Amino acid sequence: MSLRKPSLSRLPSPASAALAAAACAALLAPLGALATQWPVTSSQRATAEQVAHAGVPLSELAADAPDVYTVKRGDTLWAISRLYLRSPWRWPELWGMNLQQSRNPHLIFPGQVLVLEKSDGMARLKLANSVGGGSSGTVKLSPSVRSESSEQGAVAAIPMNLIAPFLNDAIVFDSNELATAPRIAATQEGRVVLGRGDLAYVKGDVSAGRDWQVFRDPKPLADPDTHEILGYEARYVGSAEHLRDGETRPGAQPGLEVPSTFRIVGTREEAGIGDRLIPARVRDFSPFVPHPPASEIQGAIVSLYGDALSVGSNQIVSINRGSADGIERGNVLALWRQGAVTRDQSVERGAMMKLPDERTGLMMVFRVFDRVSYALILEASEPATPGDRITSP
Known about the structure:
The protein is of the alpha+beta class. It contains seven helices and 22 strands.
């Protein structure tokens, strides 16, 4: 089944589309991917870099974009982007970020002052330091390098309280590898369920380390269009630590196996017999900025995280595009509801027709696997459901 493009009336002009495409390709795509996915010449890349350094046209600014804004605790890059831009995914252009900066973005911290510069029909955003005291509002533009041993405290792209658990709890396996992973074979004192602090007895190879995650019920993620299995999403149960190795003891029953001992150290839900363990993975809290994909993306929602039938703003979905398709963290995507098939009601016995697709919201990708990604719905005019279309914004 082929993917349907949005109505042409919603697309930018050919000239602006070409310029935006060239700029996005040079700014945001890995150089290796450009060679295989986008025929960008060196001159086009140079032009795109100049466009990016120039900022954005004044026509792209939000109607009430402030000349000066002090970053507050609790702000997100998306919220600030919407404050300044009609198209918040053009945030890197507003900052004049080059390729390297866009992939390793400027860090913005609460208390810093943002100043909007306008010149020759273009706008750019810079950091400033207040001078002179009082309420004069005078600001002094200056380079700003924050001396920090880590990025802790920097303004996040989207609310971290919504996505933090998913940065390592939500995992898509390429194959159903949980079927052969170590498993909980018995519980402390024969308990039916295990909570924090309880002991679990595990069979299987547990030589990978001390810290583990507990999962159950791997669910195949099928592409809504091709029905191909893209990976397996497992249900996160909690975390466990490896206390003692198992062994095989000689005795009255030769070869009797003693399982390894684990302690449950964190739970999202109670653990139990048959749950599977994998070595814990490190969370990726590195910063990223809102930006469009490097090349045109069309795809669909695969599933809604959890058991919901539909979701809205601040909910998480999986999509059928991943790193193999050029998706990366921070990509902003548009969400579309397919137009219904109906009959022409203006004439008797009218012909069947398909109504146009309608754009219903925006989402931002925050975790990427090979063929699947997780995205947070940022805006939604109506609930999203599996099969809804996604495109570049």
